[in-house]
Structures are given as C-alpha cells and as structure tokens.
Amino acid sequence: MSISIKLQAFEGPLDLLLHLIEKNKVNIYDIPIVSITDQYLEYIKQMENKNLDIMSEFLVMAATLISIKSRMLLPKKEKMEEESEIDPREELVERLLEYKKYKFICGELKDKQIDAQKVIFKESTIPEEIKNYEEKIPVEKLMADIDLSKLYKIFKNVMRKQVDKVDLIRSNFGKIEREEFSINDKINYIKDLSKNIKKLSFHNLLEKTKSKQEIIATFLAILELIKIGAIHITQENNFDDIEITFVR
C-alpha cells in the first residue's frame, strides 16, 4: 500500500511514532507494536530525505521497534525466561510521554507568542491628579489610642526637654558683638583733636570710650604718640589727672 506523507511535518522519529499512535487512536500505554511497527516502516520506505543525520534517527527508531516487536512475538514461556515480566515497550512509552509533554508546552508557548503579537499596548494617560492621589488617613486612625490627656502629657514632656536644654546662665547673656578699634584709628582721632586744642585731659579722653577694647586701643595710641614725639604728658601730683599736650 502506497502512503503519501509529508515528512517535513515530523520533527523526528518520536514525532512520527506519536502521529501513528494518535492516528490509530490506540492507548499509548498499550501500543500495538506489530501494527505500529509495520506502519512506521511503510513511512520509512516513502522517505526520500538524503540527509543521513535525519535518516539515521528514523532508522534507529525502526530498529528499536523491530526489536520490541520480535521480543513480544516470542512465545510467552521463552519470553518469561529471558526478560522476566518487564514490558519491552516500557522505555519507549516513557520517551513518547516525555516527548508529548514537551510538544504540548511548545504548542502553548507558540500560541501565547501569536496572541502577544496581536496585542497593542496603549501608553499610560492617567491624569496627574489621579496618579498623585493619596488617600487621606482618618484622624481617628492617626490618633489611635491617644486622647487629649495623653497628648497634653506628651506636649509637657517635650516642652520640659526643651527647657532642660537651655543653659540658664548663658541664656541671660546678651549678644556679644566684637567691636573693632584699631590703634591707628585712635592715633588719627587724637591727632584730629590737636587741630582745635593744645591740651587734652586724659580722663576726659577715656570718658568718651564705650568699651574696654576701645580704652585699651586709646591707651596704646597715646603711648605710640609719646613714642613718636607727637605729644607729651604731665601729672602734677599722684592720682591727679594726666594732661596731654600736643607738640606742634
């Protein structure tokens, strides 16, 4: 009987064998090995594939089927002596089941790929006010078991800690700003006074100062003026006022 087949439809010997099982609608756990082997060999005869690698795989399977067929055709008594009770089709059934499983998975993945190609995704157009929306948490939930008395207690604790952090002594200090008084400025200031007066009271000069730093700068300026001969000082008696005389 001539059978017209398309070998390209079969991906290998297991694919062809599974095709024959499904075509004959037989139980894969009870393969009629004689009939399936004959049909398999008919397919092999029709093959014109010159690819030796592919053909060798089909021929190996053919040899396997023939081997199984011959072992099953042996008389039952002789068969029992050689192979105990092991079914010679068992290994082949396991291979077919595993192949069928992977073929099914490949088919599912292929369908998903085809479905995915038909899907067109739309860019997100969610309005900003919706995208940034945050559900408000009820005040009751935020407060949990805190009532006004507990809240007041917490407030008092926080305030007490703030007070404890304050240095009572230093906190009474005013803001201290550094005053800049240079000796040269004071020298120039005293020289300017000499334009209108000839003598100057040291006590009156210091009275016009506002800080210790200014007093020190003024005193050092007087010493410098004495050193350069711009002024000279006199004192009539101990503890009297010192009189500054400008040298022309």
TrEMBL record:
- Which HAMAP family has this protein been placed in? ScpA
**Function noted in UniProt:** Participates in chromosomal partition during cell division. May act via the formation of a condensin-like complex containing Smc and ScpB that pull DNA away from mid-cell into both cell halves.
| Complexes and interactors | Component of a cohesin-like complex composed of ScpA, ScpB and the Smc homodimer, in which ScpA and ScpB bind to the head domain of Smc. The presence of the three proteins is required for the association of the complex with DNA.
Family to which the UniProt record says this protein belongs: Belongs to the ScpA family.
Higher taxonomy = Bacteria, Bacillati, Bacillota, Clostridia, Lachnospirales
What is one Gene Ontology biological process annotated in the Swiss-Prot or TrEMBL record? chromosome segregation
Query: Major place of localization?
Result: cytoplasm
User: What InterPro entries does the annotation carry?
Assistant: ScpA (IPR003768), ScpA-like_C (IPR023093)
Provide GO CC annotations from the record.
cytoplasm
Q: What is this protein called?
A: Segregation and condensation protein A
Reading the lineage from the top rank, the first entry is: Bacteria
Cell division as a keyword? yes
What is the protein's species of origin?
Natranaerovirga pectinivora
Question: Cellular location of this protein?
Answer: Cytoplasm
Q: Which UniProt keywords apply?
A: Cell cycle, Cell division, Chromosome partition, Cytoplasm
